Amino acid sequence: MNLKHLFYFWKTARSGGVVKAGEALHVTPQTISGQIRLLEDSLDTQLFARDGRALELTPAGRLAMEYADEMFSLSAELEQALRHYPKGRPVEFRVGVSDAVPKSIAYRLLRPAVDPADPVRIICREWRLDRLLTELAIHKLDLVIADSPIPPSVDVRAYNHRLGESGLSFVAARSLLGGQVPAFPACMGELPTLLPGEDSAIRRKFEDWLDRKRLRPRIVGEFDDTALMTAFGCAGVGAFVVPTAIELETLAAGDLIVLGRAEEVRIEYYAISVERRLTHPCVLAISDAAKSGLAAMGGGGVVGIQEGGPTDAT
Q1: What's the rounded Cα separation, in Å, for the pair 104 and 223?
Q2: Which among 104, 144, 174, 271 would be 20 to 30 A from 279, CA to CA?
Q3: What is the tens place of the pLDDT at every residue in 178-226?
Q4: Helix, strand or coil, per DSSP, at residue 200
Q5: Is the dihedral of CA 273, 275, 278, 283 positive or negative?
């Protein structure tokens, strides 16, 4: 089987027609059609059927697409692995960090990738998870750090690699409490409260916890940035919630106390890559370090990664 013919078939199916495939490959639609015809002749199998002016995959075509997706995905992985193979110059590591992940946790997860003995140029981008996954899909990023696996609504062929998890700590400034430490968890229904941004896994887990406890706090602010939320919390504007993994450094930010903890609520952190098998040296360093848990990387109350393969989210 001619792989060039298979590539033209795969590109046509992915693009939705020979015209769009031709535009993407800078060849004429006639060339695309001819290559697909040669592939069908060599296999003695029809891969496309016409439905009016549109092309539809036959059952054999759908089977061929499954194999072609695997083959060309592995080809892209090989290209990335060789591109980043050390050649006497610093390895370039391009990583996206979901804006819902606290910066201190992102730093702990990424720090093992920066080895003074093996120079690395790290390029970090912070954005919404869906936008970062789009960049990952077209290989503009090597890795995405997120507080949730790939959402079902995002059509990206990538793999979730679980790095670790943390419980939740509930924190407030002493000035907000009037000199008394209220009973937990009832106090979370009485104190003004600051919420993480709506894209944050902590926000969803926190709201679920409030529902289970039948608590209805007065929400006085919402923040995409954890550091900004902490600044407002230190000023006594409201109580707030943070991963237990960064509890100590959060307390160091001001005159704060811990109201209570919910260790049964777990916030998980993921490395998302287009690789089924991790090969980039920086990603391998992150994965290996995470097996000891975020606690060993400078935090507390965190369980490390479980041994086992990644989750295919496609």
Answers
A1: 16
A2: 104
A3: 888 889 999 999 999 999 999 899 999 999 999 999 999 999 999 999 9
A4: coil
A5: negative
